[in-house]
Amino acid sequence: MDVPDTTRASAREADDADALSRFRDRFSVPGTYMDGNSLGPLSEESEAALDRVVDQWREHAVEGWTEADPDWFHYGERLGTKVAPLVGARDDEVVVTGSTTVNIHTLVGTFLDMASEPGAPPEERGTVLVDDLDFPTDHYAIRAQLRQRGLDPDDHLTVVESRDGRTIDEADVEAALETEDVDVLFLPSVLYRSGQLLDIGRLTEAAHANGAYAGFDLAHSVGVVPHDLSDHGVDFAVWCHYKYLNAGPGAVAGLYCNESHVGATPALAGWWGHEKATQFEMHHIFTPAQSAGAFQIGTVPVLAAAPLDGALDIHHEAGIEAIREKSIALTEYLVALVDELPNAFAVGSPRDPVHRGGHVAVEHPEAYRLTQALKDEGCVVDFRPPNVVRVAPAPLYTGFEDVFDVAETLRDLHETRAYEAYEPKSGGVT
After folding, report:
1. What is the C-alpha separation between 287 and 269, in angstroms, rounded?
2. What is the tens place of the pLDDT at every residue in 132-160?
3. Which of 60, 71, 128, 252 is 20 to 30 A removed from 145 (C-alpha atoms)?
């Protein structure tokens, strides 16, 4: 897809030629919406899927677990099959379940257990490699899992530091794997501030070459970047569905576990992960499902899963490759527009689209106040400390003229200093 020049007329021409523009009217989009990497908007398909489950609940009540079409008993596995092509996995390697943080707990915990030699002293057990630009929940969960094993996180968490405060150099990760005794690598696919897209294949190969398992948090890439988890031999991954997959606030999350680890006992076992054939025989000894379904803990929240069903229909209709192609074009266009803004603005994301996910970090000393002013102008973005206006032009409902409007609004707010009418950020976490 060609990137238009930095004029409104060219943006309109690109929108007219865009094959994905037909999906826009199927979403309820509030204003110029550039925050789909936090929460995607409601689609007609998601609403219909939710209404369908409500009707099934009304008609069948408890019998919906077996009599609904599709039945609720296999809901997590069925949706996992629909998600699998988006992450490049086999059907039984993916399940829709839990929340991202809960799934980090169970999978990191499981692979720490698998990496530990029975009877090994603490100093030889349980080291996890992360980076210092991770989303905080990843560190919270990993530190908790280390503490549960009697390990001091300060001694058993290897943190790769950023050289520039924006990105992680993959060579630094490789060096840490070679020099530290790492059991589990756990990194994001896309850094949530800068939008840097890491090379999952390269990092997985490096982890395995040094005797470590490789896991990834795909929260900021699933649905906008194609993945090849199985082909790369990734051991495990987690993600949410409420960002680019538009499954709604608090939507049920997803996870992947490579088929080579089928039969592993989850660190957090629960009855919904029991093999389906004997689940209702109520045995007190856990028999894990022979699939990623083993990592389910509690009953699938059907009402929180249903919107994903409809959202996935749209994604498959559009095609993840076409979505990625347009995403690159949109972010390339945004980068070009930011380059033409006053010098106070800077692009804080990688310029090579091969290394960039679906959003662009627009840096400015008054990023927080600009974010507030943009929202009052009908442009929904978000702020990330200390100086980032995070702009995510999601391909299914965002056009090139939308991107042009955001850039022009940023220019006007800066030149008129209209952002000064807003209070500066003080305290708290955004």
Report:
1. 10
2. 999 999 999 999 999 999 999 999 999 99
3. 252
